[in-house]
Amino acid sequence: MTSRLPELLAIMERLRAPDGCPWDRQQTFASIAPYTIEEAYEVADAIERGNAAHLKDELGDLLFQVVFHAQIAREAGSFDFDAVVQAICGKLVRRHPHVFEDQGPLTVAEQSAAWEDAKAYERSAAGGALGEVPQALPALMRAYKLSKRAARVGFDFEHASQTADKVAEELAEVREAAAANAGHPGGAADALAPSPEIVEEIGDLLFAAANLARKLDVDAEAALRAANTKFERRFRAMEALALERGEKFSSLSLDAQERLWLEVKRAES
Asked: Global pTM?
């Protein structure tokens, strides 16, 4: 197989040259970071939709983001694309001793445990059990990772039912905060802004829910994406159903809208 990676690296270098593309030349790590995150999500979206052609294009876009960051680093004298490849190659070999050091075969479960042990060792060297969980991660995904890492050093409920109880406890605290702050005056710009207590308790509830998902071996981020997709599908179906009946969805009472929701939900089951 003939690699075209040198061609891609050359294109990136040309785009960043003094007589290259003005937009590409002015970019920084920070300015293109949102695009990197966006491309990663578009890869995930193509996978979820089972669209191989789209996946190919999105993987190319994501690879370009890696090359873009590496070129900026190279210009700053920090590292280059070869260093990026060297780092990931070293990490993969280091975390797969059963493959590269002939330590014998492992089951999938044993390999997962060995991988996590290696990561835990590297994190401890980087500063504690939590290590550095990127701040830029989606909050739900970051909550999942934080609770997972805490669990690896024993800070975890023994049973999922206890984690579910924690969710119920946090929900009760949200209710208490809402009742205690009924009519709470918001900021000057928004008289309906929630109180800091409610915001804090909602955050605790969401963190507990992410922890419960982890305890049940559910990818919280993927589960929420699926729930978003389901809600969007059902909501659009309600609007279409109302339109078929000569009604405007937004003009219907909440009871009528709820009846449409139940009708759409039953049709899916």
From this structure: 0.62
Q: For the chain, what are the domain ranges?
A: 5-94, 133-218, 223-268
pLDDT digits (tens, 9 = 90+) for 66-110: 999 999 999 999 999 999 999 999 988 888 887 887 666 777 777
Report the topology of domain 133-218. Helix Hairpins (1.10.287)
User: Which CATH entry fits the domain spanning 5-94: 3.40.190.10, 1.10.10.10, 1.10.287.1080, 3.30.1330.10?
Assistant: 1.10.287.1080
Give the whole-angstrom CA distance, residue 243 versus residue 122. 58
Q: Do domains 5-94 and 133-218 have the same CATH topology?
A: yes
